[in-house]
User: Fold this.
Amino acid sequence: MKEVQSAASAPSVARGEDRKKAALSKTGLDTEHQPSEMRRILVTGGSQGIGRGIVERLAGDGYQPVNFDIVPPSTLAARESYVAVDLRDKRATIEALTRVLAEGPILNLGP
Assistant:
């Protein structure tokens, strides 16, 4: 005999997509409802390893990654900007953030 699932217990792609959109909206990463100038996102250590993968994924998803790293990337991803900064140096980090924020907002950063 075939088991029948109720609508409440059946898996739903639509409900999953709704939950995903709600979660993204809460984090500020809801690109569907933000103007393009609000799509800049800061990545620390984005020149190598996992950080590099994050920068490339964000760029591929239409974001403008701002890469803060002491080491430059071998190549820039689409829309990526690189800022040479040693995050262990508080003054240099504040100066770098000030310069980047003067160019426009970054998601969830600044006033």
Observations:
- The chain has three helices and three strands.
- The mean pLDDT is 79.
